[in-house]
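Q: Protein A?
A:
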Amino acid sequence: MSSIKAYLDDYNRLVVEVSRRFYGGFTSGFYLSNDNGFVCECTLKERIEKEGEIVYVLSFSKELKFGKRYYLFEAHGCVTTLQHRFIVQTPRFHKQFTYTNNDLGSHYTKRSTSFALWAPTAIEVSLKLTNHNETSIYAMERGEDGVYRLLVREDLKNATYVYLVERNGEIVESLDPYGLSSTANGKASAVIDEEEIFSIKENTPRTVINHYCDAIIYECSIRDMTSSELTGTKTNGLYASLAETGTSYHGLPTGLDYLTSLGITHVQFQPILDYETVDEKNPKRSYNWGYDPGQLIALEGSYSTNPDDPYSRMKEFRKLVSILHARDIRVILDVVWNHMYSAEDCALWKCVPYYYFRYTDNQYLSNGSYCGNDIESRNPMTRHLFYTAVEKLMTLYGIDGFRFDLMGILDIETMNEITKRAQQIKNDAMIYGEGWDMPTALSHFEKTTIANHGNTLKIGFFNDTFRDVLKGSTSDEQKYDKGFLTGSLEEAYDAYGAFTANSIDNYFRRFANPTQSINALETHDNATIWDKMHACCQEEPRDLRMRRQRLMIGCTLVSQGVPFIHAGMEFCGTKHDNSNSYMAGDAINGMNWERREYNKDVVEYTKKCIAFRRSHNIFRLETSKEVAEHVHIEMIHDHMVLYRLNREQEQYLVVINPAGYAQALSLESGGRVIFDENGDYHEEMIHYVEVPLCSMIVIDLLNEYKEVIK
């Protein structure tokens, strides 16, 4: 390890760290030099004495050129390479080196392939190219804005490559940050003939999505959907596995056919962009959800039939999306762009150290993600990469939207521009994510959080109020806490806000419009509803908890806002009380088709709820104005909620009884039960109805609404 390290932190500012082991850390002077006779004296501005080192802050008067090697000499004769550090975070650097064209990465034609890498702090960049098992190294030429370029006049359709980047005194081997695909375990980026990907037919979903509330989102994992041998697919846990048709278990559909049978409009896949912690050549030896990103555009190879063939994952996933579209299901990707698995080992750092990551005022890596680093989304070239990734994923595969993990780490301006660009490609594209206020080194007003929803009107947020009020708090520390639907009846008034997507003033408003409220009682994180009830409803018999499960599904699908269902929620899925199962394996996370069969009545009830919502757009109001005009909620008897919807010829009354006993209701003008506790329709007119324990019914009042007789 060098006794001295020198960092360029601004255009005329150096920070030098001298080890106490080297002359006690004391020295009398420094100067800069390069290989071409350049010499520049440095002026001491500040000296900071620390336990293991002394830090010298220096200034200098001459201009340093990027792309050149510089060395720092100190008075005892020690020399070290000058490293570019926080200079890359300065406004002047952004102005000097921001690149706006769309030609970064590799671009193939049969006659030639162009390569372009943005690496302004690099001294030299070479391309290490492997084609037909022969490897060659080509020097790249530095151009404007710090972009290194090369044109190779060969047919490189099946070639792979890495960049050799000399920066900060060392040469590193790096993937292409803009790479479209890679070989197994991210060993090399791949030249891709996009026309081969586009040769797979693209289908268009039939149902028109006018706004977010028209969506019914189903979250699942590519691997989990078919990992079980009981799925009946030829392969398990792959893109191709989920594309198989005609699979079943004991006569009940599995895999793709099961997804289709539910009637959902959107499937949200847990991360399928390349991640680090599963060996793609031996995927069954390990398990991970994929929230440990390695690349931002290339797909994960452990889900492909041949992870060493870069085309395999691309073609198989495009085919899967096309099949889902043909079955009227849109596809949303769960993207993890808030951090990288390892900052210093990823291509972003290797190509331009310090640039893509956020730092605290004390110049430490920001760690609002609790994963060791945060992406600096405000930097122009981070945005450039994000925008390119959105465009490529939507055009290459037909993606219909993005769910952003820990979206509160990303800034509002970037997220709004992502939304704008996605919706220019598809006007019904959905953008939503976790709007939690994470402790990243970003001002409160810049974070894409629920608190700032007024500045992100086209972006949705997971509504934790909906979750906590109706189900009960979801953390392990609060697993015994009940919500309104799990038995805390005194929370009835808070539930009013949940049923109205927390979008109107009367009932704890959190969002500008219901389109911003993603209503999820269960997601991949934390305990499932069923496991939550193991704790908070442990005194209740199983059949009562089953009724509560159905009630929570029903309320999710009749509430204003955007309903969200986690895979397995519809058959009382359990993770056996493992609330953080991100690496717990297939036995815990995979779809349990035996349990699906055992609880098939809950699945059928869920299907009826989905069909009911899709056939009644009054449960899918787009604006807070509409909700305020057409929805009214009140409470009668023992915390039984009456959720009334009234618009022109539509007069509906949703009656929600979370109590552990039946309650009666009289209707002055009469009505017809069009959705009972089993999701069934009744023809007869009634003036009196008994609402079973822990259940929901919907009544069509038919005539002009008159007050309910209490």
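Q: Protein B?
A:
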Amino acid sequence: MYLYCMIALCYTIIMRKIAYKIANVFVLLGIFFNPILALAQADFNPHFIISDNELQNYQDWTRGDIQAFLSSKGSYLSSFQGEDTNGTIKSAADIIYNAAQTYQINPKYILVTLQKEQSLITDDTPTQRQLDWATGYAVCDGCNINDPKVQSHKGFGKQVDNTAGIMRWYYEHQDQSYVKKINTPIRIDNEDVTPQSWATAFLYTYTPHLHGNKNFHRIWASWFDEAYPNGTLLQSASSSEYWLIQNGQRRRFASKSALVSRTDPKIAIMVPEIDLSNYEIGTDISFTNFSILRVGAITYLLDYDTLRPFASDEVVRKLGFNPQEIDDVNEADLAGFIQGLPITVSSTAPLGVIYRITDLKGAFYLLKDNVFYPLVDAAVVEANFRSLHTEKHLAKDLRAFPMADIPLTFADGTLIQLKDSRLRYVVDHGKKRQIADDDTFVGMGYKQSNIVTVSLLTALNIPSGETLFLNRTLTSSKNKFLGDSLSQVPDLFTTKLPSYLVAEYPSGRIITGKDIDSRRPIASLTKLMTAYEALNQNFKLSGTMIYNAKQHSATPNSLKLVTGEKIKNADLFNSMLVGSVNATARMIAQNSGLSSENAFISAMNERLAEWGADSTSLSDVSGLDEQNKSTARDLLKIFTKVLSNVTIKDSLFQTKYSFKEVVNKNNSASHTFNNTNQLIALKDRNYRILASKTGYTEEAGAVMIMLVESRKTKKQYSIITLGNSDYKKRFEEPNKLATWIASGTVTITTSH
């Protein structure tokens, strides 16, 4: 019973009671190098954002480093040239470098500010306005962008110079009343904050909002903090060298043999040299694992980064080590290694051996130095101990040595995925951290082929850590989403609508909105997620499906379908999105390849969690359930993601759709319907509708989401309206809102 407990749920209780011992056990076992783990950033501490050294380290990067960084990000700024403060045309890298040197401010600060304010590092097609107000300098909540005083700061070169210059000015004028002070409590967004560095105080002086500074921290951390923790294997894209990230340093593998003795090179993350430059260079890894090293009269076994002295030469011989394999080294060669337990003649399996217990199904143990360590899962053997010999034994053989009370889980950096689930995790400091979304998985350099599939029981036995995000604003360099970049969204449009939102597309920068974080029923906007999930499962547009009233019925039955009628999947798909047919949404979900409609709903909610749409939950696939709820902010994230699928975007663009049933049972085989968005038929609009979806239930009211393009400026905007109680006039307010933003006269300000 004790052994069963050890390999089952009792693991969790034991680990909680004695977790403090884990570090010592790992030292004993020599588990110092682990497969890949990418750590995006630490938690946001409002009292300490960055240090003064970080803000003022102007010699951190050269001009070439800045250019390499911009190029590695595929940034528009990598080839941009503009006027500096003297009117001389220079490259963006030159302008940034010169400002950093002039004011002795870290160029990394400038780069993060360019991203935080205008997404200029990742936006490959920025507008002139983004360039003109690149760092948001002189643009504030109450500022008029046309004010001559504000206009004097317009231009990329001036913006960069000003944002570096104001930080130096703050350092030189700390006594000014409006400059926030170190160790002095301040009130930020109704929260008490006490800056613990001058740099933190100045960031709040420049941007007096928590949200903006959270974004600064997230971007800084994801780019410049120790992005990869201990145990991460990185491969330089330019030199093909392999590096181990350890204790904030990068250690080079001096030979291929040293590399393969510790890990599989296939799990390495390839990164540009500029990412490696964030780390100081540590000592090389020169020796293969389990090398026998001799210094003078002492002989050691190298167990990863632990040196274990042999009690005598006799012990070396008795344990079967070949004297010809001993390498004579100097004391200097062993600098930095940890001194481990001595190996004596009574030491059993000092290298470790795996026991497979044949009469305890799935039970594996590591025997090392006269102690048994239970393994949390059989997969740990292949993932962490593939070089060790495995022996078959019976449970009674476990009585030979004492049993450790700590089960060994996967090594840090191991990628795991739950069986029959899309949830993926990476192990970090003994905890499993959920990988937030596909962008994070790909952006951090992970590979699906390196994932270990585990059971739910195994996952429960691994403590949970924080979710891993590439960037907690749901922004990767792929989609450049900035939907929550404003801490206080200005309500610039007068309306009785309880909730609305307008944002630039595709950047997601919110222009205006009202009550955008209140959860509301979303009716048929649900079908956007149904469409996206179906196409990402096994729903084939080229297939067909037969309608069954018992399985697929939904109110109203607008297509008048009867049991036995066969319809092409492409027609199901378009009738759902263009005509908002509820029954076809159920048919699509049940034809997606998943085991049930409920499984499909679960998959949608898992994807929403990956996307960071934390305020959204779905209970059905059509939107009839009032428990399908979201916020305007979340819907912006969802809409931006969904529109990345061309098939969905093309369907949402259609004004009318017609199809004919493959098999008909009631003499009503042909169907034609108009797009449910009546604004499409409205003439003389100053905007084009590129995609739209409507919805209505009594609980949700009328809801709408649109992608529109201004005929005047050709700029595109996402528009979301929720909770409209006036059904007869449900299109009036969305039309006014679209007309207003498409006019090109709206003054857009950025929150500082």
